[in-house]
């Protein structure tokens, strides 16, 4: 029995939440392994719409859902999200939900710093989600973080707080801000601690038990490979590794546990925030993709930038992340287009490239080389079998898999859970 690791293969918002929810009913555990509440995953089940940021998407099907150590956890955002989901009828309790006790916390001071830096950067800003993700990861690797397990030892936190506040007070002074209100911070932590601690445990142990029992584990990535801090469009990236390899280190299982790597790929391209985007369309076609695809951020409500499918980028993401097969989503958004284009290479100062270069200036300057295909007259929306797809849509899907050198395992044709075509089952591969 294979485990499955789901990752985004573009700049996030590929439809990971929908696919994880669809697969979750056949998994025994779903684990988030990086990122935080910068993620926004929308699940549609009949009339109900669930918006998840921090909770693993498996929670909606009642599957054991775990937040791994690789995640940065805002305890107040967690509580608000659990309350929202509970009000929608989702059961969340210590039996079906666990948090790694070695998970670093996002504190109000991280959100402050994220905002101060973005404001100071003006037009050079990253366009972060403002959730404090970057500063929290900095404190983790800087060995200054307060972690979930520290919430059980708040009386012994003095020396850790000295180190954390010394660092942040210096940064805040540079922005003309007052020092951290340490007493208020401790009071807030004392207040939230019991809520978080009811779910805290060494999840590496639980996951290893689950694995030994032969159960299926679904690893749920957030963001996408092009936002990876090493492999993405640096510095316009998030602050974690979003590639499949992180599933192991971010959950406490070895790399041999991660199984089938399912890359989620949107049939066109979107991006939120600043940074290079070679196939971006700032014309009526881009507008149309945004409107038909409802391309507005789940977390910040920002309009997503839209463009043609970029096969160079996705081929690169699939190689870097060892993608076994892809789930191609939002094919229906292309329904009714007379022509569709796919980027098959770049031109950079007279040279043709078959990869995306690393330097920011080169990334900004590459010009896409397009291949044009006829669109399709019929509709793919709501299709649940390959036979329901118009012949020309099948041609598009086949061309995509050829160019990215990775087979299609699933096709998604609407936001609704069941509007999904299974081509090759990742769990039994
Ligand atoms: P994630 O961050 O990767 O989970 O993706 P988001 O949830 O942020 O964005 C994807 C959006 O597209 C959501 O609103 C989904 O409901 C929607 N969606 C997912 N798959 C499909 C699909 O195949 N067709 C259409 N039209 N919408 C989809
Ligand atoms: P999901 O999981 C799309 C982007 C932000 C910004 C950059 C850095 O829903 O696919 P951060 O707050 O992480 O420091 O912001 O990363 N970003 C996302 N874009 N989908 C996401 O998550 C994202 N999470 C972060 O817009 O450009
Ligand atoms: Mg999203």
Automatic annotation (TrEMBL):
Q: Where does substrate bind?
A: 298-304
Residues bound to Mg(2+) are: 13, 40
Please name one Pfam family that this protein belongs to: Adenylsucc_synt
Q: Where does GTP bind?
A: 12-18, 40-42, 304, 330-332, 412-414
| Keyword annotations of the record | Cytoplasm, GTP-binding, Ligase, Magnesium, Metal-binding, Nucleotide-binding, Purine biosynthesis
Q: Which residues form the active site?
A: 13 (proton acceptor), 41 (proton donor), 140
The pathway noted for it is: Purine metabolism; AMP biosynthesis via de novo pathway; AMP from IMP: step 1/2
Main location per UniProt?
cytoplasm
Q: Name one GO cellular component term.
A: cytoplasm
Its annotated compartments are: Cytoplasm
Reported EC number(s) for this entry are 6.3.4.4
Q: For IMP, which residues are the binding ones?
A: 13-16, 38-41, 129, 143, 223, 238, 302
First-level EC class: ligase
- Keyword hit for Magnesium: yes
Which example biological process does GO assign this protein? 'de novo' AMP biosynthetic process
Swiss-Prot/TrEMBL cofactor(s) = Mg(2+)
Keyword Transit peptide among UniProt keywords: no
What the protein does? Plays an important role in the de novo pathway of purine nucleotide biosynthesis. Catalyzes the first committed step in the biosynthesis of AMP from IMP.
- Assembly behavior: Homodimer.
The protein here is known as Adenylosuccinate synthetase
Q: Which organism is it from?
A: Novosphingobium hassiacum
* Lineage start: Bacteria, Pseudomonadati, Pseudomonadota, Alphaproteobacteria, Sphingomonadales
- Gene symbol of the encoding locus: purA
């Amino acid at each position: 029995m294979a485990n499955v690791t789901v990752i985004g293969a573009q700049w996030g918002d590929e439809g990971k939440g929908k696919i994880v929810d669809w697969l979750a009913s056949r998994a025994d555990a779903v684990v988030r392994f990086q990122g935080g509440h910068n993620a926004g995953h929308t699940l549609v089940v009949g009339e109900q719409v669930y918006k998840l940021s921090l909770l693993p998407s498996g929670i909606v099907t009642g599957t054991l859902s775990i937040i791994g150590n690789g995640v940065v956890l805002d305890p107040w955002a967690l509580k608000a999200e659990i309350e929202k989901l509970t009000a929608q009828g989702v059961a969340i309790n210590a039996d079906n939900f666990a948090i790694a006790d070695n998970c670093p916390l996002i504190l109000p001071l991280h959100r402050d710093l994220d905002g101060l830096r973005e404001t100071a950067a003006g037009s050079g800003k990253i366009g972060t989600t403002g959730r404090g993700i970057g500063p929290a990861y900095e404190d983790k690797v800087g060995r200054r973080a307060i972690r979930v397990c520290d919430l059980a030892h708040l009386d012994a936190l003095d020396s850790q707080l000295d180190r954390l506040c010394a660092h942040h007070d210096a940064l805040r002074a540079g922005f003309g801000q007052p020092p951290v209100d340490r007493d208020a911070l401790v009071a807030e932590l004392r207040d939230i601690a019991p809520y978080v601690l009811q779910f805290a445990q060494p999840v590496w142990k639980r996951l290893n038990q689950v694995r030994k029992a032969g159960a299926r584990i679904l690893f749920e990535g957030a963001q996408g490979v092009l936002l990876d801090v090493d492999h993405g469009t640096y510095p316009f990236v998030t602050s974690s590794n979003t590639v499949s390899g992180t599933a192991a280190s971010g959950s406490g299982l070895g790399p041999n546990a991660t199984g089938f790597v399912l890359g989620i790929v949107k049939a066109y391209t979107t991006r939120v925030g600043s940074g290079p985007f070679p196939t971006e369309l700032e014309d009526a076609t881009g507008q149309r993709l945004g409107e038909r695809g409802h391309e507005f951020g789940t977390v910040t409500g920002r309009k997503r930038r839209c463009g043609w499918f970029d096969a160079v980028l996705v081929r690169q993401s699939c190689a870097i992340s060892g993608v076994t097969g892809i789930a191609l989503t939002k094919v229906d958004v292309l329904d009714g287009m007379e022509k569709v284009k796919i980027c098959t290479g770049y031109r950079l100062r007279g040279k043709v490239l078959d990869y995306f270069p690393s330097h920011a200036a080169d990334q900004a300057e590459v010009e896409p080389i397009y291949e044009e295909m006829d669109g399709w007259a019929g509709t793919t929306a709501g299709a649940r079998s390959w036979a329901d797809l118009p012949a020309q849509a099948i041609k598009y899907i086949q061309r995509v898999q050829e160019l990215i050198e990775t087979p299609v395992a699933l096709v998604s044709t609407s936001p609704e859970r069941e509007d999904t075509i299974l081509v090759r089952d990742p769990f039994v591969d």
